[in-house]
Amino acid sequence: WPDSAIAYSGEPAAISRSQFRRPMLEVELAFRVNVLIPEPLADVSEVHHVVSEVMPAIELPDLGFESAVGVTGEAVVAANAGARYFLYGAPQPVEQVDVNAIRATLSHNGEPVQHVEATQVMGSQWRALYWLINKMVSEGWVIQPGQILLTGAMGEMLPLQAGLYQAKFTELGELVLQVD
User: Would you say the pTM of this structure is higher than 0.85?
Assistant: First the structure.
Protein backbone atom coordinates (compact mmCIF):
# COMPACT_ATOMS: atom_id res chain seq x y z
CA TRP A 1 0.00 0.00 0.00
CA PRO A 2 2.89 2.41 -0.16
CA ASP A 3 1.38 4.34 -3.09
CA SER A 4 -2.02 4.57 -1.42
CA ALA A 5 -0.86 5.42 2.11
CA ILE A 6 -0.60 9.11 2.96
CA ALA A 7 1.10 10.06 6.23
CA TYR A 8 -0.53 13.14 7.75
CA SER A 9 2.09 15.90 8.09
CA GLY A 10 0.06 18.39 10.12
CA GLU A 11 -0.89 20.29 6.95
CA PRO A 12 -4.10 19.38 5.10
CA ALA A 13 -3.57 16.38 2.83
CA ALA A 14 -4.77 17.12 -0.70
CA ILE A 15 -6.86 14.75 -2.83
CA SER A 16 -8.64 15.37 -6.10
CA ARG A 17 -12.02 13.80 -6.79
CA SER A 18 -10.87 13.36 -10.41
CA GLN A 19 -8.66 10.47 -9.21
CA PHE A 20 -11.80 8.43 -8.43
CA ARG A 21 -14.79 7.00 -10.23
CA ARG A 22 -17.07 7.11 -7.17
CA PRO A 23 -15.10 8.51 -4.20
CA MET A 24 -16.17 7.71 -0.67
CA LEU A 25 -14.85 8.43 2.84
CA GLU A 26 -14.70 6.35 6.03
CA VAL A 27 -13.41 7.21 9.51
CA GLU A 28 -11.30 4.32 10.80
CA LEU A 29 -8.46 3.21 13.05
CA ALA A 30 -5.21 1.81 11.67
CA PHE A 31 -2.81 -0.56 13.41
CA ARG A 32 0.85 -1.33 12.65
CA VAL A 33 1.82 -5.00 12.82
CA ASN A 34 5.06 -5.72 14.70
CA VAL A 35 5.65 -9.42 13.86
CA LEU A 36 5.39 -11.82 10.95
CA ILE A 37 1.94 -13.48 10.95
CA PRO A 38 2.02 -16.55 8.67
CA GLU A 39 -0.86 -18.45 10.29
CA PRO A 40 -4.17 -17.66 12.00
CA LEU A 41 -4.16 -16.41 15.58
CA ALA A 42 -5.57 -18.85 18.15
CA ASP A 43 -7.75 -16.28 19.92
CA VAL A 44 -8.47 -12.59 20.18
CA SER A 45 -6.07 -12.09 23.12
CA GLU A 46 -3.12 -12.73 20.75
CA VAL A 47 -3.95 -9.57 18.79
CA HIS A 48 -2.48 -7.43 21.58
CA HIS A 49 0.92 -9.05 20.95
CA VAL A 50 1.05 -8.66 17.15
CA VAL A 51 0.36 -4.91 16.81
CA SER A 52 2.52 -2.12 18.23
CA GLU A 53 0.82 1.14 17.22
CA VAL A 54 -2.62 2.60 16.65
CA MET A 55 -3.26 5.59 14.37
CA PRO A 56 -6.24 7.70 13.35
CA ALA A 57 -7.20 7.04 9.75
CA ILE A 58 -9.46 8.19 6.95
CA GLU A 59 -10.00 5.62 4.23
CA LEU A 60 -10.92 6.85 0.75
CA PRO A 61 -12.51 3.94 -1.12
CA ASP A 62 -13.39 4.16 -4.78
CA LEU A 63 -16.57 2.20 -5.36
CA GLY A 64 -15.97 2.21 -9.09
CA PHE A 65 -19.68 2.26 -9.86
CA GLU A 66 -21.94 5.18 -10.73
CA SER A 67 -24.74 3.64 -8.64
CA ALA A 68 -24.91 1.03 -5.88
CA VAL A 69 -27.97 -0.59 -7.52
CA GLY A 70 -27.28 -4.24 -8.30
CA VAL A 71 -23.71 -4.16 -6.96
CA THR A 72 -22.64 -7.56 -5.63
CA GLY A 73 -19.61 -8.51 -3.54
CA GLU A 74 -18.10 -10.14 -6.61
CA ALA A 75 -18.58 -6.94 -8.62
CA VAL A 76 -16.86 -4.87 -5.92
CA VAL A 77 -13.84 -7.22 -5.97
CA ALA A 78 -13.76 -7.34 -9.78
CA ALA A 79 -13.75 -3.55 -9.95
CA ASN A 80 -10.94 -3.35 -7.36
CA ALA A 81 -13.20 -1.09 -5.33
CA GLY A 82 -11.09 -1.07 -2.23
CA ALA A 83 -9.17 1.71 -0.60
CA ARG A 84 -7.83 4.01 -3.29
CA TYR A 85 -6.02 5.97 -0.57
CA PHE A 86 -5.89 6.17 3.15
CA LEU A 87 -4.63 8.98 5.32
CA TYR A 88 -3.14 8.07 8.66
CA GLY A 89 -1.97 10.17 11.57
CA ALA A 90 0.74 10.02 14.20
CA PRO A 91 1.13 6.56 15.72
CA GLN A 92 0.62 5.97 19.43
CA PRO A 93 1.89 2.89 21.31
CA VAL A 94 -1.11 0.56 21.41
CA GLU A 95 -0.52 -0.33 25.06
CA GLN A 96 -0.96 3.34 26.03
CA VAL A 97 -4.39 3.76 24.38
CA ASP A 98 -7.77 2.23 25.22
CA VAL A 99 -8.61 1.66 21.56
CA ASN A 100 -12.22 0.69 22.24
CA ALA A 101 -12.83 4.01 24.03
CA ILE A 102 -11.79 6.11 21.00
CA ARG A 103 -14.45 8.38 19.53
CA ALA A 104 -14.18 10.61 16.49
CA THR A 105 -16.03 13.56 15.03
CA LEU A 106 -15.90 14.24 11.31
CA SER A 107 -16.64 17.74 10.00
CA HIS A 108 -17.01 18.94 6.42
CA ASN A 109 -16.40 22.66 5.84
CA GLY A 110 -16.77 23.24 9.58
CA GLU A 111 -20.13 21.43 9.90
CA PRO A 112 -20.21 18.18 11.93
CA VAL A 113 -21.34 15.30 9.71
CA GLN A 114 -20.50 12.22 11.76
CA HIS A 115 -19.88 11.20 15.38
CA VAL A 116 -18.50 7.66 15.65
CA GLU A 117 -17.07 5.24 18.20
CA ALA A 118 -14.40 2.56 17.85
CA THR A 119 -16.78 -0.13 19.10
CA GLN A 120 -19.03 0.42 16.07
CA VAL A 121 -16.68 -2.01 14.28
CA MET A 122 -17.70 -5.55 15.32
CA GLY A 123 -18.25 -4.36 18.90
CA SER A 124 -14.47 -4.24 19.55
CA GLN A 125 -11.39 -3.12 17.65
CA TRP A 126 -9.56 -6.20 18.98
CA ARG A 127 -12.27 -8.51 17.62
CA ALA A 128 -12.15 -6.67 14.27
CA LEU A 129 -8.34 -7.04 14.08
CA TYR A 130 -8.56 -10.73 15.02
CA TRP A 131 -11.15 -11.35 12.29
CA LEU A 132 -9.16 -9.32 9.70
CA ILE A 133 -5.84 -11.02 10.43
CA ASN A 134 -7.34 -14.51 10.36
CA LYS A 135 -9.33 -13.76 7.19
CA MET A 136 -6.21 -12.47 5.38
CA VAL A 137 -4.04 -15.39 6.51
CA SER A 138 -6.73 -17.95 5.60
CA GLU A 139 -6.73 -16.46 2.08
CA GLY A 140 -2.99 -17.02 1.71
CA TRP A 141 -1.55 -13.69 2.84
CA VAL A 142 1.48 -13.57 5.12
CA ILE A 143 1.21 -10.39 7.15
CA GLN A 144 4.56 -8.63 7.41
CA PRO A 145 6.08 -6.57 10.24
CA GLY A 146 5.42 -2.88 9.59
CA GLN A 147 2.23 -3.53 7.62
CA ILE A 148 -0.72 -1.24 8.43
CA LEU A 149 -4.16 -2.79 8.89
CA LEU A 150 -7.41 -0.80 8.88
CA THR A 151 -10.19 -2.41 10.90
CA GLY A 152 -13.20 -0.94 9.11
CA ALA A 153 -15.50 2.05 9.10
CA MET A 154 -16.46 3.36 12.54
CA GLY A 155 -19.61 4.81 10.99
CA GLU A 156 -21.31 4.80 7.65
CA MET A 157 -19.40 5.31 4.40
CA LEU A 158 -19.98 8.83 3.09
CA PRO A 159 -19.72 10.23 -0.45
CA LEU A 160 -16.49 12.25 -0.74
CA GLN A 161 -17.35 15.85 -1.60
CA ALA A 162 -15.15 18.81 -2.42
CA GLY A 163 -14.16 20.86 0.61
CA LEU A 164 -12.25 20.59 3.86
CA TYR A 165 -12.69 17.52 6.07
CA GLN A 166 -11.47 17.42 9.67
CA ALA A 167 -11.58 14.24 11.73
CA LYS A 168 -10.85 14.66 15.45
CA PHE A 169 -10.06 11.47 17.38
CA THR A 170 -10.00 11.32 21.19
CA GLU A 171 -6.48 10.38 22.34
CA LEU A 172 -5.16 10.29 18.75
CA GLY A 173 -5.36 13.84 17.45
CA GLU A 174 -6.78 14.97 14.13
CA LEU A 175 -6.55 14.50 10.39
CA VAL A 176 -7.33 17.25 7.88
CA LEU A 177 -8.10 16.53 4.25
CA GLN A 178 -8.64 19.06 1.44
CA VAL A 179 -10.66 17.65 -1.44
CA ASP A 180 -10.76 19.47 -4.81
Answer: yes
